[in-house]
Structure formats: C-alpha cells, structure tokens
Amino acid sequence: MLKNLLDTIVYPSDLRKLSPEQLVQVAKELRAFIIDIVATKEGHLGASLGVVELTIALHYVFDTPKDLLVWDVGHQAYGHKILTGRKAVFHTNRQLGGISGFPKRSESRYDAFGVGHSSTSISAILGMAIASKLQSNNKQHIAVIGDASIASGMAFEALNHAGNTNANILVILNDNAIGIDPSVGALKDYLTRIKSKRSDIAQQNIFEALNFDYSGPIDGHNMTELLLELKRLKEIDGPKFLHVITTKGKGLKQAEENQVQYHAPGKFDKISGDVLPKSPNNFTKFQDVFGETIVELAKKNDKIVGITPAMLTGSSLKLMLEKFPERTFDVGIAEQHAVTLAAGMATEGLVPYCNIYSTFMQRAYDQIIHDTAIQKLPVIFCLDRAGLVGEDGGTHHGIFDIAYLRCIPNMIIAAPRNEIELRNILYTAQLGLQQPIAIRYPRGRGQIENWKQRFKKVTIGKGSYLKKGSDVAVLSIGTMANNVSKAIKTMENPDVVAHYDLGFIKPIDTKMLLQIFAKFNAIITVEDGAVLGGGGTAVLEFAATANYNGEIINLGIPDTFIDHGTVDELQKKCGIDSKSIQQTILRVLNK
Questions:
Q1: Per-residue H/E/C for 452-478
Q2: Taking the model in full, what pTM does it have?
Q3: What are the pLDDT digits (tens) for 299-313?
C-alpha cells in the first residue's frame, strides 16, 4: 500500500492526475522528502524548500517536457528533479557517479538547459522561444529566476531584448530577498517597494516599461493562487512577467530564520533542523586566511578596499565588512562590474582586493583584459575555489584560470602552496605593484595550524626548492605541493626525487628552471588546473626555448569537463592524488 501521494508520482504526467486540492499534500510530502535526503547527503537546501509549491504548480499547469522550463542557477531545482523521474536516485545527488546538483541536459529531457552560474535563464529561454516561433512549434517557455540573479547584467540584457520581441516567454521572478547572502542594490530596493504595493510604484513598473505583461506580486506558497495565475498566463502570448514572493527555507524553522547558513548547511538533524557539529579541525579554511589577512592589512593601509560579487560569506569578506563597512563592497551578481569597478578604484590610488571565485572570474574575461591588464592597473584578483571544488561539479571547478590568464600581457599569476605563502603574497601585493596580479587558492582547509606569522615580502616570479633529489624533478603548482610531498615520502627510495614549487606561473622562475634542466633528464609538473595551456605548458614552452632535450610529463586536469564527487575522488580520477603521482614518478624512474 502506498504511504503517500508522492509515492504515486514518478513524472509530471502522474502529478497531473491528481486534483488541485491534493497538491497541497504533495507539497508537504515533497518538502519532507528533500529535508530527509539533504539532512544526511548534504546539498543546497533553502532555495529548493522555498519553491516547492511553485515547482509543483509549474509541472501541473504546463506540459513539461514539451513545454520548456529553465531554472536559473539551479540551486532551487531539487523538487524539479524529484518530480521528473529522479526521485529513486535523488540520494545520489552530488555524489561520484550520481545525479548532478544542478539541472543538466545530458541527465534528463526535463532539464531544458544546463545551469550552474546565475542569470542565464532568460537569455536561454528567449532563444528557445524564438526557435519555436521560427519552426512553428506551439510550446510554452518558462524561466524561473531569483531576485539576486535578475540584478545581473546578463539578465537585464535578456529582458531588454525579450521586451522587443513577440516571443512567447514567461519570466517568473522568485523573490525571497536573498541569494546566498542577502540581495543588494537598487533593484532589490525597488522590488521591496513593489511588494509594499504602493500605487505610485505600480504605475511605473520597470518590467512593464520593458514591454512585459507584468502580474503580481503573488504569494508563492499559495497553491490556489499560483495555479490560477499560471493558467491565466498560459493563455497569453508574448513576453510575460510573474512576480512571486517566497520564503527561502520554507517549512524548516531554522532554515527560514538563518537563510545564509541553510543555503547549503551540510548535515543536519532532519527532526530538529539543527546543523550537526563537525569533527574538530585545527586547520583554517583558505577563504578565512584571506578574510583575516585582508582585515589585518586594511588596519595598516587605509587605501585597501574589498570587492565581491555576492559572495561576502563564501569569500570571508564579511570579516572586512564588519570592521570596515565603508571600504567593503558587495556589488551583487555582477562579476564584470566588480572587475571594472576595481580598475576604476585603482586609477585613483586605492588598493582593490577583488575576490571572485575562479569559476565566476570566467564571466569577466574582457574586463580583465580591456579594463585592467591593458592599462596595467594594479588590481589584486583573489581567485577563491581554484582547482577542483568537489560536489558542485563541472560548472564550478576552478580549473581554467591559469590557462586563460597566462596569455594576458602584464598579468602576474601566483599560486601559494600553503596558508603562510597566501598570507605573504596578499601582503606583498599591496606594497606598490604596478600591474594586476591574480592569486589563486583552493576551497577547503590548509595544513598549517600556526599560519599567522610575521609578514614577509615575496619576490615576484621566484620559485622554491623544497627537497633534494638525484634522478627526477617534480614541479608542483600551488597546494598540489602537499600531494607531491606525500607521494615522495611514501616511496621506498625518496632520495631519487627532487621537489620544487613554482610559486608563480607568470612570470615563471626561468633561473630555477634552467638549473633544473641542467641537472635532470626527467621532469614532472603537477597542477590542479587544465593541462592544456596551464603551468606545465609554461614549463614546456620555456624548455623549448632553452633547447631542453629531457622528458617532461604534465599532470593536471585532462581535456574534458569533470563531473561531481569529493575532491579526493576527483583528484584520483584526474591522476593528481598522491598515489597516482607516485605511480607516475615510478614509471619515469623505471624507464
């Protein structure tokens, strides 16, 4: 005997067999199902809990997957996955070999567009709607976007275009006043005023001014109201905009009250909702090394400012915000603006630390080149989450920054191998550099307890000699030094392997490389970035100019997109864990 209504639903076609009155019960059960799984398996919780009713209503009213539904970012798509054939495997979410934490076209025909970065949904759904018009396909096209994501420049560009078309699209604004951190900016203030239903605001609605048929705001947790409005909008052609008010974390008291922590809370008690304590760890997260260090530097240098695109908590710039609110800028989900804002500040003598996750820095590539590097403006780019990030998967790994930054003139690229080196390069960067610098460091914790040591100035472009060896040299980049050191220490004869830390990918330490070329006939480079165009490639290029005739093997991320799993699992898959590195060393030695 079936226990509940959710057990009867595998696909949306099953959902549509129920009466509208039964959908409230489905919402209750779906919320409980998400809480039950995420409590032990971890993942993005609050966003999905907030759109349970909206998810059900969309799949009930529209004929998915014929009608196309795109979820912006995808943090809120767990309910969507559960209702579209993935309930039985939802427990594998974000695990190696399991389903992705984000919508993914290769995973399900119900995932109309792959997402992971924000603000792409309106552009994508507009493209689909235009294609349907050209091919005379009778489809509905729906994009669900949050109030933080819609403030991004790309979303505005798409709204501007869409309003000048007759494309049949429905943009649903999921307005809960929070992304990962609370939403910021003038648009947020505007939406707050709309929610107050002031008549003067209604008369000058910005979305109507962009030629959208605007409706709302409506209660995103009122199933009856949602169904009525979605059915009405389904019959209207052209660009439409529905403003829906939701509560992030709806249905779990702690998640509603602490929306930042419960965005992705880790493991928690599914009954009480309390986050479970983690095992004691004496090591510090790299993001906190950055956050604490910049506060220390800002106390002594009043020209230092901190900038982040909607990642105050994730980057630990919240620590600077607490101490220096007037010198800390959360610009919202606007990486392009963040970079050029920093460049503008640098022209006037400020020292901007622009903290952007490596994967999101990709969104501001032209601004790095055109607005920063060409003008040799000394912006300090702090690339958090560089390398493999784990369960967030292919859209979030920070594996391309070395390759895409290395080709830019005037750019310094530093890869500190530990917390002390990160602290020292952050210190050095504000001592009067005359060009931009990118400092990359990984997600997670370091391995040094006493990292708060006295600052030391770093020599730009200088590598380090870490261990003597006779037969083969291993050159590590960044925190890959830990894997290399472990690989060497566990060998039967570690004395045959020398270990060097490049420290900088650009400028690369050519003096150290010439010494290595002169001594060793075999060299192995190890990095947690893309092999093509990466640090190992820089070594190969210099070896060619130096007429080096020995063997060079480059280890790193292969020329493919890496899916989700733990960092350890993915490093093993890519051959850059300590055991794989050791096997490569032994293979070279035994030739």
A1: CCCCCCCCCCCCEEEECCCCEEEEECC
A2: 0.91
A3: 999 999 999 999 999
